[in-house]
Amino acid sequence: MALKKKPTSAVKLQRKILPYLYLLPAFLVMGAITFYPLIYQVIISFTNFETKHLLLGLNSPELKFVGFKNYIDILTGALPVENFNFFRVLEFNFWWALSNVFLHVPAGVLIAVMLNTEGLWLKKIYRALYILPVVVPPIVVATVWRNIFDEQYGAMNQLLTTISALFGHLDPVHLRWLTEYTPPIPGFLPGAPLTLAYYAMMIANFWLGWPLMSVIATGALQSIPKDLYEAASIDGATGSQQFWGITVPLLRPAMIPAAVYGFTITFNLFGLVFFMTGGGPARSTELLVTFAYNLVRNLRWFGVAAAFAVIIFFVSLVVLLITNRITRATQNYSEA
Amino acid sequence: MINDSPKNSSNPIIRFLNINTSGQTSGRDLPLWRQLLIQVLSLFILFTVLFPIMYIVTLSLSSKTTRPSSLQLIPTEISFIAYKQVLDHPTGNPVSFVELLRNSVGLSVGVGLVALLVAVTAAYAFSRFNFRMREVLMVLVFIPLLMPAVGLSTPLYLLLNNIKVVDCGEGVKAIIPLFTCDGGAKGKLIFNLRDSLLGVGVAITAGALPFAIWNLKGYLDTIPKELEEAAAIDGADSNQTFWKIILPLAAPQLAVTFFIGFIGNWQEFVISWLFLSQPKDYTLAMTLYNMTGQYASSIPWNRFAAMAVIVAMPVAVVYVALQKQIVGGLTTGGVKG
Amino acid sequence: MKKNLLVLLSVLMIASLALAACGGESAATEVAELGGATEAPAATEAPAATEAPAAAPIEVTFWHAYGTGSAEETALAAILEKAAVDLPQYKINVLQVPFNDIYTKYETDVAAGGGPDMFIAPNDNLGAEVRGGLIADITDIAAGKLGDYSELSQGGMKYDGKLYGLPESLKAVVLWYNKDLIATPPATTDELKALMESGTEVSITYGCYHEFGFFGSFGGKIFDDQYNFVTDEANQAKVTAAVSYVNDLYQISKANSWPKSDADGLAPFTEGTAAAITNGNWAMGDYRKALGDKLGVAPLPAGPEGPSNPLLGVDGYYFNPNSANLEAALEVAMYLTNTEASTAMMNDAGHVPANTTVTVSDPLIQGLLDAFATSYFRPQVENMGKYWGNFCGTDQVFEAGTAPADWVKAGFEGATK
Hints:
The complex is a heterotrimer of chains A (about 325), B (about 325) and C (about 425). Chain A is mainly α and about 325 residues long. Chain A contains 12 helices and no strands. Chain A starts with 8 loop residues before the first helix and ends with a helix. The relative contact order of chain A is 0.13. Chain C has 2 domains: about 60-170 and about 315-370, Periplasmic binding protein-like II (D-Maltodextrin-Binding Protein, domain 2), CATH 3.40.190.10; about 175-310 and about 380-415, D-Maltodextrin-Binding Protein, domain 2 (3-Layer(aba) Sandwich). Helix content of chain C is about 40%, strand content about 15%. Chain C is built from 16 helices and 13 strands. In chain C, strands 1, 2, 3, 6, 11, 12 and 13 form a 7-stranded mixed beta sheet that branches.
């Protein structure tokens, strides 16, 4: 081993402050454009900031500090907007993200496995084309799917009409996907009734969601060594046993982070929800982010919007902690 | 033994249930019936995937602006008039397609680059160094990721709105808030940071930076520490290690972070819409939104579809070409998050 | 090390300058040398000024909300082309903003100190904007110049006796019909209902704005002459009768899956599937383009208690108090609403002009003017906002099954809280 010079105190100091120097550019920039607005946001959440205060900002003479009033109003539903119940929206938001992920991940895995069959023709073409839903801009996706679920001329209703005609019901099907109030399955979900619009959005988001999961699963599948399957079939394991015994456990380390990522994205899925249903009939499909947008853009109650953003922050924090716990738990499990 | 395996059973149901779902066979060719079965399934899935896309493309090739009342997937007429109209006169505003394109590209590339450059050193610091405030600062960086972007927009609006360049008359210009015009005169507004692409870029970077740091840190975590130890033995200090060894090695992953950011910014319109009011600053994504939020009836569907195809093209190209890396990038960053 | 850090920083600077260059504006951190000098803020009105002809034109910016590709937008574009020739001393910058955003965007920008010089829109928010100090009082600078504009239209631009906008056209909801499918339009509410029950597809636009006209048909009043809510029992019963009637129509529409909004009804009406549609006259250009001579217009049907009284709105140009070029903007606005321009808007876009010097020869426009005769002048008072806040949840009755009487009662109670 080569002899190293004993570090001088100057070099030692340099090494100590080095990390901070590396962090400096990012924190300088973030300090100005991220942290300052964040703090500003928190401050105005305790005021009654509105459009008329825009000119002078915090220096407005009419700006009043109202303490926790904004927060309380949001949580108790005292906001003068129709149909807004914070806990119902929260429950729906969680359910929306969960149900989507539970649909997309298995579907993505199954399709990836299917496509991974050796000797399959046109594999590459399928793989390249299956990624297409992700590249279409979200606003276009939402508009197209809104068209598809149109009551009169939508493709979905036409399809259902054709299918029902096969069974002998010749009346055209005119399901009011996006405007029907009464939930098709009464009593489900307790506290946050799921209207037809929810199901329409599930179908649209399914189209959007499984390709990404499928690509991730494909990547992970490639890394499973073939010998495992060879050995298993020699031992007489059936295909289904191989699937559950080999494929699933080995896919887990890749799919769990993917599921977590999918959950986070879906939880905050603004584009599709806003442009497809706008929060749905009577806010039944409202997400936290779409309501926040509503508060800022249309109602322009900036103080309330700021409080709402802070509340969303805490909700996201809880989500982050939970998903972190899950990720870490499964990591340890697979490494064990 | 091989002949007794369920795969060669004479019962077709058992054979079907034993389809090799792992995908790893021993190299034997796939039997024809199984091949066809999977082909049929795949084609069906392909149809569901392409169905909305064909719908849009067909719509963009039509010459009528109204939504057809019957479903059309195969174009009944091929007319490029919608594309022509979009390229000539994308919106009711006096801005040409080329300007929109230039603004979109400039914004996406600019923000992607700046976020990347500013984030890379910070990501390295978090990944490699162990210093006293590490945990605290990491949490600080990741907090903005949890705040919805729409919430930050109001303070950013106000913050950027305060920075202006005004003409005080007689050729004197002042940069507010550093200077003001003499005598309290208001001066004529020349440039408002909020109402400019630069301001929008700044606002988007506010959200892009934490994500870039988080993503890059995840990548850098996967680079084995042995490389640095070897370099240290050879006498390199931390900086040389960073610039000469780690960065070149991480270059492909840096590129992927850039592209993920690029795709996101390309489709961004919420902040641009909120901040900008001069048509020459508009971007493609805003124009797309402009076409949908219309009063009553007049969404020009064929033009909307044409614009959608045009906006989706670059993203499609990037995604298809860099599929593996992008997906790897998203999950690698996530695992260590 | 320091050297590399410096390199990093300079790359950052270059990147941000590149971004600024792409933005096309001078960077905020450097004082830019602008090309030609810009005018001093005060605009002069006299065209034959003592300034040299090479002086740069005054910039006037205005926003509008006409749909992309609509007849209104095309007509406006043609007028603007002509304006570029006729008014060389002004450079007119136009921005199109989607209608559902224009008030928000204008109000936010003006409140923050910016905004365009003027914008044209219906007088939906006039009262609120005046109370928020977001539009300029032009009574003084417009004095004596508005002889060509009808009193009615000017009234729509006034608040508290002061003038806040330059009127452009009149708008209200009427019944459009296809002459090939219905020879005579339904003149009474019973006829309309019978028509729909017999299976003829009619696209009724449901909603607190479009339905307002039916209140008059049943004798119900929302406001009295002082714009207070009329809450006595007899009146509430009449308002309830109107709401019940519209609910009946809604159930028929729902059972037949007929369109229930003007956006959904456009395609069926223009393609000839729907026989009639209730909508404002802003859509006339599109309807006429599709149906030509087959298009007919009639007032909303009268009811047992009298004729319908749809809300009469006035579109106008409103001016930004932050603007430095108010008088220039006014002049441009007056050009855009002069005889020639108003005639073009009338013929191509179906606007009923506020300018009285326009000769009306089109029977459709005449029909509109007749329909407007019984319309209700849209109030600008604060109580109007309370109407929107309490009477727009019509889905409660149509979908959720609340009894109209209870809903009306709750509406009046909420509005007078």
